[in-house]
Amino acid sequence: MANPTHADVTPHNILLIKLRHHGDMLLTTPVINALRQRYPQASIDVLLYKETRPMLEAHPAIRQLHVIDRKWKQEGSWRKLRHERDLIAAVRASRYDLVINLADQWRSALITLFSGAPLRIGFAFTKRDNLFWRLCHNCLVPTSHHGQLHTVEQNMMALTPLGISPAGARASMHFSDADGQKVDALLAEQDVSAPFIVFQPTSRWNFKCWEEEKVAATIDQLAQAGRKVVLTAGPDKHELEMIARIVALCSTPDCVSLAGRLSLPQLAALIARASLFIGVDSAPMHMAAALDTPCLALFGPTKLQFWRPWGDHNRVIWAGDYGPLPDPDAIDTNTRQRYLSAIPVEEVVNAARNFLHD
Questions:
Q1: What is the CATH code for 4-162?
Q2: For residue 168, is it left (φ>0), alpha (ψ between -120 and 50) or beta?
Q3: Sequence-separated (6 or more) residues with CB below 8 Å from residue 10
Q4: What is the reported pLDDT for 62?
Q5: SS (H, E, C) the chain
Q6: Taking the domains of the chain in order of start, what are their residue ranges?
Q7: pLDDT of residue 76
Q8: Nearest in space to 206 (alpha carbons), one of 280, 296, 153
Q9: Could you tell me which of 195, 87, 104 has the C-alpha nearest to residue 146?
Q10: In this predicted structure, what is the pLDDT of residue 75?
């Protein structure tokens, strides 16, 4: 149980641990922002997976990112052990007086313990209800209400022992001036000027995607000479193939593709310049919400309570309002089923036009 005396702590070096996907990392930024506001003189570091580094590398409140590369295990046991040893040495050398472990992995708990920090906050996850988890953390925050909370609110609960309220939690996404200049150059090259719409219809999971025909039909109704639609996607072969199919189906000349050509911070710079973002449940959707760009999010069998866009200028269109959906916990993530198929084109077009004041 949280000890109220921890509210008197004034840490100088803080480590935040989260080992998850890109979107999850973005949803840790309310914690980072709240820590910066409460402890303006403190140094704040983050431990994360290497591939998610672009989500936080430009955040002005972060001093240093410690990374775990999931490819270490491909180098063999001894090399992996050496990497882990070097990581723990770097963490210990930083002399943290506060470690906040938002993760549920044993690896994160061990690093929390080996940090040597006098205050080590973690969550009292039901599946980790044992002596060793309690040894790694000397302050455990209850998770009994997590089922009713958004992921941002869950993360913010880790700060309650410090007397920091979850109220007013604000996510943020940052990019460099160079990223902005790169995006401006690409837009000029494609003859795109403001206002424009960003549409990211892809996900690494096919079941989160809408049909290409419906995406193309939506684009055809929203694109116009003075307001182009910019399609984006990751560099994955399947995502690029999906974008190619959508472009081929579009009849409008006012749709351009920057799919596979942008880093995540560059994508953020693009979204920040857009009048509207339309996308499926994915990291770019969370980026749009964090950037305060009006966001129209298409959801299927995902836990909306946890993963809806966090912010004020968002609208969710949920496939479950138009047809039956399976339980999110029962989904085969490798299925080719498109669970968003029940969403009508006109609903998305009308919602977009409301944002755009058409």
A1: 3.40.50.2000
A2: left
A3: 39
A4: 98
A5: CCCHHHHHCCCCEEEEECCCCHHHHHCCHHHHHHHHHHCCCCEEEEEEEHHHHHHCCCCCCEEEEEEECHHHHHHCHHHHHHHHHHHHHHHHHCCCCEEEECCCCHHHHHHHHHCCCCEEEEEECHHHCCHHHHHHCCEEEECCCHHHCCHHHHHHHCCHHHCCCCCCCCCCCCCCHHHHHHHHHHHHHCCCCCCEEEEECCCCCHHHCCCHHHHHHHHHHHCECCEEEEECCCCCHHHHHHHHHHHHHCCCCCEEECCCCCCHHHHHHHHHHCCEEEEECCHHHHHHHHCCCCEEEEECCCCHHHHCCCCCCEEEEEHHHCCCCCCHHHCCCCCCCCCCCCCCHHHHHHHHHHHHCC
A6: 4-162, 177-356
A7: 86
A8: 280
A9: 104
A10: 86
Structure-token pair, residue 249:
């189906």
Please give the average pLDDT of every successive group of 10 residues along the chain, which has 358 residues: 65 97 97 98 98 97 96 88 95 98 96 97 96 97 96 98 95 98 98 97 93 98 96 96 98 97 98 98 97 98 95 95 93 89 97 95
Dihedrals phi, psi of 95, to nearest 5 degrees: 50, 60
Q: Give the pLDDT score at 2.
A: 43
Quick one: pLDDT at residue 344? 98
The answer to whether residues 356 and 221 touch, using CB atoms and an 8 Å cutoff, is no
Establish whether domains 4-162 and 177-356 are of one fold: yes
The pLDDT assigned to 3 comes to 46
Closest CA to 122 of 107, 109, 106, 131: 109
Distance separating alpha carbons of residues 138 and 305, to the nearest angstrom: 29
Fold type of domain 177-356: Rossmann fold (3.40.50)
Residue found by looking up tokens 């693009």 in the block? 270
Q: Kindly state the tokens that stand for 313.
A: 């200028």
Q: What is the pTM of this model?
A: 0.95
